Amino acid sequence: MKHPVMRYGMFMCLMFSASLGFAQLKMPQASPAEKTSTTIGLTDVTLEYARPGVKGRERNIFGGLVPYGEVWRTGANASTKVTFSDSVKVKGQWLPGGTYALYTIPGQDEWTVIFNKNLGLWGSMGYKQEEDALRVKVKPVNIGEPAETFTINFSEFTNNTANMNILWDFTKVSVPLETEVDSKVMAQIKETMSKPVENGGTYFQAANYYYRNGKDKQQALQWVDKAIEKEDRYYIHYLRALILADLNKTKDAIKAAERSRELAKNENPEYVKMNEELIARLGKSGSTKKK
Fold first, then answer.
1. How far apart are the C-alpha atoms of 179 and 89, rounded to whole Å?
2. What pTM did the predictor assign?
3. How far apart are the C-alpha atoms of 130 and 40, rounded to whole Å?
4. Fewest C-beta in 10 Å: which of 147, 173, 285, 287?
């Protein structure tokens, strides 16, 4: 008869072999991993999280499966991670660039959204408030069409803002994000324009930024003229027409739009239409001023 220790050892070897066999099987994940990236202004944002599903469980996940008033991992498995390539404002409060664990405390009328510095936790086990980098409070809203799978996405983009949305079941929570753009772009323009510029596209970009963001229109006109000297393109003339119109130089603006329309005829029908609309609008404006 084999010694009990020998039998136990053989049993453990068999179990280990079996576990190795199971480890080689590929199974669908109960809560699939998700990695998504976007850019808000000039700041890159990356999310890594796991996506649990309702899977036939009783509705009203929040307040049931996910209790109110308790720290939640905001997903499944390991804690959700969010990375900002630069500093970002979260609901008006600055958060330094970097990677954070994203936790939440769901509530019926208010959620607390937490950016925590400890990235090594499995879910919320071991979470400590003193390791928080930032907390903000947001209001949940009820959505008519339930989200079967837990999702974090981005919406409502502008040049420097977006919402980070947390959705599951009938609940949606939106976290406003804002990034710094203007000072960075202006610094780039200042540095670039302090040196000889060979590319017409660079002059066009600088002029377009000045025009779109209410900067010095005379400076924008100088740059757009330099762009045209290097590249006689329809879209540059269209921008010139817009700048001239803002400077109340209606006749010159119409001429620029006509030139843009002519160049666009064989390249971009949409710009032909845009120029015709601009010419008509400027013509009416000019006739009104004469009266």
1. 6
2. 0.78
3. 29
4. 287
